[in-house]
């Protein structure tokens, strides 16, 4: 039966719910998800159980749950956003827009109004309570379907009185019949179904035929069309849709006889207590769906301008923009992986040495600087700068001690050569001893006793005697880093702020360049060990006059020509092992400016990488017998 939309009807209000696509803060979304889905994190009632693409997000479901179930709202938001974004990208949505739209859709999990629309369908003034809630999310291409099922039981009882099902679909599509540069998010409440048992069932039936009851008033169940005038009324109602009027289709009856009605469909295996086939068959079903007229449960338009995402005419906030930028880089990397697998060869980036012009997006330098600043602030708050410097520099300071390679230079001179010769000699001998005892050793076995004797003598001189060789190596790496710090502080003797900025740049700039510049452009990541050559050059420009901050310029160079034994290369969501490659090379450079009264700034950066896969050799055919 169809009837005009009524603003006071529960079914009508549920079908007309407006989905908000306004961007919320990341912290606010995480807090809302904590409240609704994690009972231990501030929820006031039993949490809603969530299933995404038929996989439960809580560990209680064992084999049917995620391998690493999210523990907080932040982790759940990240997982759901990644799932939706990946599906959108695979369906052709640009990576940055896909991430923003996925975040907006996943944010509905924190929205009180979105999650509680089904409460409108609860029969009022009845002694019943909410018993269990399940939200099933299904991602298919550019569509995300939400289905919420809520069960009610009588106060003090163990039998179900009412079950409410509500379906909502959110999808994205390209504007102008697929030829525009705008992607529109649409929302539609697809169906609402209420199953009633016992007295509630009689309430609705009597209300529709004999007397008006609270349940009948609540659902506004229309009477079945009777005779010619009833059918004529239905025709005029539909014609009113041409004039902008809206209508809903309402079906009432025994659920067993209405199994083919679309609004009745519910995802399977929701594991709700007391809800079984017997209840579904015996309950009275009241269901509704949007019918004639123009319906709009929410629309928002997104487009990319200079790689920045805009919603309508408004630029999104920086935090979401940065994540969308990285997501766009990951989408580019996925395309690079596909090209490599198809053509067996790939070149990415641009080699400025050959006269190329690697064009960074206008905001890339700013993102890199902000990334470094956030890392520096976190290190300052947690007092981890020294450890982070040791992680970033210690290993290569030790490794290069036995070579002629100047790993870190200050004013074109090896930063440690002039003042720390004894420490460098100790590091060199430890490095030789370590390598001499491995398969790649450079020293003959006869030299080992002499090497150990000299190492022991230097260990005593540096107050490290009694430690094992690995322990000595660890301590020497730390002392090499501290020697670098001392040289930097001496160079900035009257400018401690400048020294601190240089040290934070040494600790985090290469990570910022890798994560923001290379990954943001869809470049590769070399994993699990590789033969990398690094060089860091520091140049100091003294202030031109008193009370003016000086400047430092730091250049980071890196080149990779071979992979380690367990080396891998990652392009977006694809990871290829070392044995897949015939050749894998990459070079990168970043140039940073550091001033005492400003945050470190990325001035320029580029990278260039070439790859060639091994081509399986087809064995020659056996010669035909003569």
Q: Major sheet: size, sense and barrel closure?
A: 12 strands, mixed
Structural class: alpha+beta
Which spans have pLDDT < 50 for at least 5 consecutive residues? 207-212, 352-357
Distance between the termini: 83 Å
What count of helical segments does DSSP give? 17
Number of strands: 22
Helix fraction, binned, reads 25-40%
Radius of gyration, rounded?
33 Å
Strand content: 25-35%
What overall geometry do the principal axes of the alpha carbons give?
elongated
Q: Average pLDDT, to the nearest integer?
A: 84
What does this molecule look like?
With 626 residues, this protein is of the alpha+beta class. The chain has 17 helices and 22 strands. A hairpin with a 2-residue loop joins strand 14 (408-410) and strand 15 (413-414). The longest helix has 26 residues, at 318-343. The chain starts with a strand and ends in a 13-residue tail after the last strand.
């Amino acid at each position: 039966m169809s009837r005009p939309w009524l603003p006071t009807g529960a079914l009508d209000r549920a079908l007309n719910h407006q989905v908000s696509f306004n961007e919320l803060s990341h912290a606010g979304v995480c807090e809302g998800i904590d409240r609704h889905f994690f009972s231990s994190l501030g929820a006031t009632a039993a949490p809603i159980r969530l299933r995404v693409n038929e996989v439960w997000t809580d560990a209680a479901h064992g084999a049917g749950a995620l391998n690493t179930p999210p523990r907080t709202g932040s982790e759940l938001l990240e997982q759901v956003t990644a799932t939706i974004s990946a599906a959108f990208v695979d369906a052709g949505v640009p990576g940055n827009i896909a991430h923003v739209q996925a975040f907006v859709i996943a944010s509905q999990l924190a929205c009180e109004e979105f999650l509680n629309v089904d409460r409108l369908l609860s029969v009022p003034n009845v002694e019943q309570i909410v018993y269990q809630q399940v939200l099933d999310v299904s991602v298919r291409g550019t569509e995300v379907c939400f289905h919420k099922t809520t069960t009610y039981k009588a106060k003090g009882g163990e039998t179900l009185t009412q079950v409410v099902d509500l379906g909502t679909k959110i999808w994205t599509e390209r504007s102008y019949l697929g030829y525009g540069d705008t992607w529109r998010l649409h929302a539609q409440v697809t169906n609402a179904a209420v199953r009633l048992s016992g007295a509630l069932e009689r309430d609705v039936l009597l209300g529709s035929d004999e007397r008006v009851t609270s349940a009948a008033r609540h659902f506004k169940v229309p009477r079945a069309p009777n005779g010619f005038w009833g059918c004529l009324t239905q025709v005029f109602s539909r014609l009113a849709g041409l004039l902008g009027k809206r209508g809903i289709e309402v079906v009432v009856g025994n659920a067993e006889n209405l199994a083919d009605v679309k609004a009745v469909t519910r995802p399977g295996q929701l594991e709700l207590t007391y809800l079984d086939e017997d209840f579904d068959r015996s309950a009275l079903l009241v269901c509704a769906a949007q019918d004639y007229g123009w319906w709009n449960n929410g629309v928002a338009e997104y487009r990319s301008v200079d790689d920045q995402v805009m919603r309508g005419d408004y630029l999104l906030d920086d935090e979401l923009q940065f994540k969308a930028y990285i997501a766009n880089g990951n989408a580019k990397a996925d395309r690079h992986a596909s090209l490599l697998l198809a053509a067996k060869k790939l070149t990415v980036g641009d080699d400025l040495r050959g006269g190329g012009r690697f064009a960074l997006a206008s905001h890339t330098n700013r993102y890199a600087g902000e990334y470094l600043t956030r890392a520096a602030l976190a290190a300052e708050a947690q007092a981890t700068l020294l450890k982070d410097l040791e992680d970033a520099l210690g290993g290569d300071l030790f490794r290069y001690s036995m070579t002629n390679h100047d790993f870190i230079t200050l004013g074109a001179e090896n930063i440690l050569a002039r003042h720390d010769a004894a420490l460098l000699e100790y590091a060199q001998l430890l490095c030789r001893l370590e390598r001499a005892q491995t398969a790649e050793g450079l020293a003959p076995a006869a030299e080992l006793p002499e090497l150990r004797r000299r190492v022991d003598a230097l260990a005593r001189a540096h107050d490290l005697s009694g430690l094992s060789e690995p322990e000595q190596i660890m301590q020497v790496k730390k002392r090499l880093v501290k020697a670098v710090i001392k040289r930097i502080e001496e160079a900035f003797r009257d400018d401690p702020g400048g020294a601190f900025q240089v040290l934070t740049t040494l600790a985090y700039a290469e990570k910022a360049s890798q994560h923001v510049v290379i990954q943001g452009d869809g470049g590769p990541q070399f994993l699990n060990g590789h033969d990398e050559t690094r060089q860091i050059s520091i140049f100091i420009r003294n202030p031109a006059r008193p009370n003016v901050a000086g400047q430092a310029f730091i250049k980071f160079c890196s080149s990779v020509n071979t992979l380690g034994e367990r080396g891998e290369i990652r392009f977006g969501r694809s990871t290829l092992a070392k044995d897949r490659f015939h050749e894998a090379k990459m070079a990168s450079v970043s140039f940073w400016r550091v001033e005492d009264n400003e945050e470190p700034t990325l001035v320029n950066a580029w990278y260039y990488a070439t790859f060639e896969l091994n081509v399986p050799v087809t064995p020659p055919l056996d010669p035909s017998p003569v």
